[in-house]
Design goal:
Blueprint (H helix, E strand, L loop, with lengths): L1 H54 L4 H13 L6 E11 L12 E11 L2 E4 L10 E4 L9 E10 L8 E7 L3 E2 L1 E5 L6 H10 L1 E3 L5 E7 L4 E7 L4 E4 L2 E4 L8 E5 L3 E4 L2 E4 L3 E2 L9 H10 L1 H67 L3 H13 L18 E2 L15 H14 L7 H14 L3 E4 L3 H13 L4 E4 L6 H9 L4 E5 L4 H11 L5 E6 L17 E4 L22 H6 L12 H19 L4 H7 L5 H7 L3 H6 L5 H12 L2
Parallel strand pairs: 8-10, 19-22, 19-23, 20-21, 21-22
Antiparallel strand pairs: 1-2, 1-5, 2-3, 2-4, 5-6, 7-17, 9-13, 10-11, 11-14, 12-13, 15-16, 18-20
Helix pairs in contact: 1-5, 5-6, 5-11, 7-8, 7-9, 8-13
Length: 650
């Protein structure tokens, strides 16, 4: 029998080595796929860049500067400035005979030709406030005014009149940076969904920072905006977006805003024939256009090749995942068989101590027909080594918890002492309560997992969680000790060992126990079979833990058998428990809403936002869908940032 056991051990170890090699191959495939995906995105951007270059190779700024120089030659208004409307007056300007509406303008910068320059760069009259007595403009709007001053002949102290005119065809271009946006796809998605911005002119570059010197984005004008309260809303219907890059040297900082240092001329008053200019330009730049077109073709070809490679790698990764799951399932089956053989060997050795002759005869018979042996003589029960009862926490303040609200408040305080962040304590307490009510076992992966399980058990039962350690060789005695104990909360250590897997269906279906599986490393959860999480739901404690545990537990002396508990928690019906993890998450989310609505109505919306960190996201993470989850997440930005930081730390 020893040789049979050794043979099974050798076979199992060989299979484990094969799986490790398959896992390493799978990781290499994932790494290569990620590198190719990054390369594809870079090539796609390069291709779009050269497409824009081929379509718009003409140096637009020089032509517009030339046209702007023509428009700026206005003898009636020799000065041109960028101004903001500070006040409006519907009854006219003081000191004037006209009773028409007027506006007070604050001069921010000056315009020379078609470029915005700060006041320190110019020597024109030092007049910071201008008066436009003719029109009433929108308060706080920014525009370009031409202006002049004249001495008031009625005043001896040299007071001056100001005469202004708004250049409606010369609109300053704001640069609005979306700091949370990191790439073209995210920006396009945001603009397609619609965002609100505080726009003070009629045109804008909506951008994101590429680095500290360059911004990338799109150019929008008045027809792309609609007014929503005091803000402007952008919603694009056309997906054919033209991208621009804005250099930091082309940016002017004025009045706490950023502006592009050139003004675009868009006016129906002036019709300019570009045909001759364009034809001449095309002849002069024929080689450049041809080179840009050739680069587009090259980048398109490379992009197609990389996309095909990525598709092939995706297929290989999918096949590897299926193969790994199949091999892992086979290994678990073999481990169970090996455990049974080891159990039978132990029984036979125990019997042999009493009757050597019977042992020899039985061994000969077993070697011929190992499956025929069904019953064994009684044996002594070994000492229980891998199961430890919970420790009772004494308390001088013994009291009854009279409602589920009191229970959650006590639990909130307890897990806060074990390191849970203050903004997560209430919502996570409701989640633990809901998981217990529905008898859904939890897998706490990451720091402070056992401390959280102990805190929950102390509040519920007055003692810490019992320990079932699966690192050693478990026996039926360990399982029986767990089943027959009065411990209600069980913390399973080393849950991915074969011993725990063998007893998993029996343990999680005990109607008088609640199971916490404890594991220290969240990233290992992706290696295990996905179907494993249909048995216990994963929680990534790193997302909700801010400090080390105090383990300073405090018990209220809660009576385990009180009628109050039966009224607080739902009854347990095995037929009501969903099979899949996704359905369990859906049921938990619904139950949490009911608890929050009944007892914590003022915090219901906040609790809903935070709950995603220990409900939907961990399930997406263990299934490898975390990136897609984050891309499609529409909740609180602080939650998204916390998830993003967690993924970047991997």
């Amino acid at each position: 029998m020893e040789s049979v056991k050794d043979a099974w051990n050798d076979a199992l170890f060989n299979k484990i080595e094969e799986v490790e090699k398959e896992k390493e191959s799978y990781r290499e495939l994932e790494t290569r796929y990620t590198e190719l995906d990054v390369r594809c995105k870079k090539l796609e951007r390069e291709r779009n860049k050269y497409k824009n270059a081929a379509c718009h190779f003409r140096d637009t700024t020089e032509i517009l500067d030339m046209l702007a120089a023509e428009f700026s030659k206005n003898e009636k208004y020799p000065y041109t400035s960028l101004c903001i409307v500070e006040t409006i007056n519907s009854e006219g300007i003081a000191g004037r005979t006209s009773q028409r509406a007027g506006s007070t303008l604050k001069r921010l910068a000056d315009v020379e030709g078609n470029k915005i320059k700060t006041l320190s760069e110019n020597c024109i009259p030092e007049k910071t406030v201008l008066i436009d007595a003719e029109r009433n403009y929108t308060l706080n709007s920014i525009g370009v005014w031409g202006w002049r001053t004249e001495i008031n002949p009625r005043c001896q102290d040299g007071d001056e009149f100001t005469y202004c005119t708004l250049y409606e065809d010369r609109i300053p271009i704001e640069i609005i940076v979306l700091p949370d946006c990191k790439d073209d796809r995210t920006l396009e998605k945001l603009l397609t969904q619609g965002i609100e911005i505080n726009l003070i002119s009629g045109k804008a570059f909506i951008t994101y920072p590429i680095d500290h010197k360059t911004y990338c984005g799109i150019f929008l004008c008045g027809k792309n905006f609609e007014t929503v309260g005091n803000h402007k809303k952008i919603k694009l219907k056309n997906k054919n977006i033209e991208w621009f890059e804005v250099s930091f040297k082309d940016i002017v900082h004025v009045a706490g805003k950023m502006f592009y240092n050139r003004l675009y001329i868009c006016s129906n008053k002036y019709v300019v024939d570009y045909s001759g200019i364009e034809e001449k330009w095309r002849l002069e730049n024929e080689e450049k256009i041809s080179a840009a077109t050739k680069k587009i073709e090259d980048y398109t070809k490379q992009l197609e090749e990389y996309q095909a490679t990525c598709a092939e790698l995706e297929k290989q990764i999918s096949d590897k995942q299926a193969e790994l799951e199949s091999i892992s399932s086979q290994i678990e089956t073999q481990k169970i068989i090996l455990r049974d053989i080891a159990h039978q060997v132990a029984e036979r050795i125990e019997t042999a101590r009493k009757n050597v002759t019977d042992f020899i005869c039985e061994t000969i018979f077993v070697n011929a027909q190992p499956a025929a042996v069904q019953s064994q003589p009684a044996r002594e029960v070994p000492a229980i080594k891998n199961y430890r009862h919970g420790k009772i926490i004494e308390s001088d303040d013994v009291r009854e918890i009279e409602s589920i609200q009191d229970f959650i408040y006590d639990l909130e305080t307890a897990i806060g002492c074990e390191g849970v962040t203050s903004d997560m304590m209430l919502s996570f307490s409701i989640y633990l309560c809901s998981a217990y009510r529905n008898k859904f076992p939890l897998l706490l992966a990451g720091p402070n997992g056992r401390d959280i399980a102990d805190a929950f058990s102390v509040v519920l039962t007055g003692k810490t969680a019992a320990i079932l350690d699966c690192a050693g060789v478990n026996s039926l005695d360990d399982l029986n000790a767990c089943v027959e104990s009065d411990d209600e909360v069980i913390a399973v250590l080393n849950p991915f060992s074969p011993n725990f897997m063998a007893y998993l269906p029996e343990i999680i279906n005990l109607d008088n126990k609640f199971i916490f599986a404890i594991y220290p490393f969240a990233e290992d959860l992706r290696i295990e079979p996905r179907s494993l999480y249909n048995y216990f739901l994963p929680v990534l404690t790193e997302l909700i833990i801010a400090k080390r545990s105090s383990r300073d537990f405090y018990s209220t002396g809660y009576n385990l058998n009180s009628a109050v508990k039966k009224a607080m928690f739902k009854g347990y019906t095995p037929d009501d428990i969903p099979i899949s993890a996704a359905e369990r998450i859906k049921k938990l989310t619904k139950d949490m809403k009911e608890i929050a609505g009944a007892h914590f109505k003022s915090n219901a919306d906040k609790l809903k936002n935070f709950a995603v960190l220990f409900t939907k996201f961990p399930l997406a993470y263990v299934k490898g869908n975390d990136k897609n989850f984050l891309d499609n997440f529409n909740g609180d930005e602080k939650i998204a940032e916390r998830i993003r930081a967690f993924l970047e730390d991997e």
